[in-house]
Amino acid sequence: MLLSIADDVALLTLNRPDKRNALTQAMWRALPRAIETVANDPAAKVLAVTGAGGAFAAGADIGEFEAVYATRDSAAAYAAEIAEAMEALADLSKPTIAAISGPCVGGGLGLALCCDIRMASDKAKLGITPGKLGLMYSLGDTRRLVEAVGPSTAKDILYTGRILSAQEALSLRLIDSVCSPEDLDGAVAAKAQAIASASQWSARRTKAVVRRILDGQTQDDDTTRAWFLDSLEGEDFREGRDAFLQKRTPTFPYR
To answer: What CATH number is given for 199-246 in this structure?
Structure first.
């Protein structure tokens, strides 16, 4: 996989175009390190995840299944590596966007569901197919699917293993927007820049609060109350307030 950072945006590209970016064990192992690099680099405010060659990712590399599922222990180790990669992306404090073109299936869709926003071309094909392989989707991956589309639609997608068009995926709220393939990169770049130009302190606390709500929190606690009060004393709020009063574009200092 490839990682580049420019103009406040990190771009992580799954790079096996000859295999439609099917995810190998080595790629699953490399993902947490790449995410850590983005997390620790102040030059990166937003992460966009995409695939090379007109595909997002066709899922885990089935060619490795005989080896990784050879024993119960090897299967457990492989599942743990995938879970670590998924959680690393889902837990990144910075905003994330999945740029989906072509096939986005199985583990590929699992990765996309770890992102905050999913933008797709109208040629994208999405699905989760363990039911066609006699496998079970993990609890963490299933939870993220349910959070996106609700329990009954999640069951439909998993029971049937069917492949969804971009338009159907949009109608089910599995993705957030659809555009033509030639417009996808520009649309993702524009969204990333819109997020990067806003307060990163606000974006990261918002992401954390939404996660708490999805985890079942219904009332403020000491932490969320402190975050709110901290914002009133923060440099970003002072800059945003001053820019508003001075009728200029703010330049937020928090990175």
So the answer is: 1.10.12.10
CA nearest to 141, candidates 16, 51, 23: 23
Q: What is the mean pLDDT of each run of 10 residues along the chain (255 residues)?
A: 96 97 96 98 98 95 93 96 97 98 96 98 96 92 97 97 97 98 97 97 97 96 97 95 96 93
Determine the topology of domain 2-195 in CATH. 2-enoyl-CoA Hydratase; Chain A, domain 1 (3.90.226)
